[in-house]
Amino acid sequence: MSFRQPEFIKSWLYIYRDGGLLHLLKVKGWVVAGAFFLFYLVRDSVLYIIIPYLAYSNISSCS
């Protein structure tokens, strides 16, 4: 099964497969670290803040 990937992700994966994580960080720099940070920031905000808030607001309005 083939997934569609943006071009920058394909280039990052190629560099990662060629030389590993340290080589990727050496070539692309802090952009990679910032992308990972933003991805996990958004993911964790949705999982641990937004979903529990929506669940609590729906449960608290039932009474």
Report on the architecture of this protein.
- The chain has 63 residues and is mostly helical.
- It has one domain.
- The chain has three helices and no strands.
Topology:
Layout: H1 7-19, H2 21-28, H3 30-60
Outline of the structure:
By secondary structure, the protein is mostly helical. It has helices spanning 7-19, 21-28, 30-60.
- DSSP strand tally: 0
Count every helix, treating DSSP H or I runs of 4 or more residues as helices: 3
What's the end-to-end separation, in Å?
A: 47 Å
Main pleated-sheet profile:
none
Mean pLDDT: 88
Helix content: over 70%
What is the number of domains?
A: 1
| Rg, Å, rounded | 18 Å
Overall spatial form = elongated
Catalogue the unreliable spans.
Answer: none
Order of helices and strands: HHH
Q: What class would the helix/strand composition place it in?
A: mainly alpha
Determine the strand fraction and express it as a percent band.
under 5%
Features of the shown structure:
mainly alpha, elongated, 3 helices, single chain, 63 residues
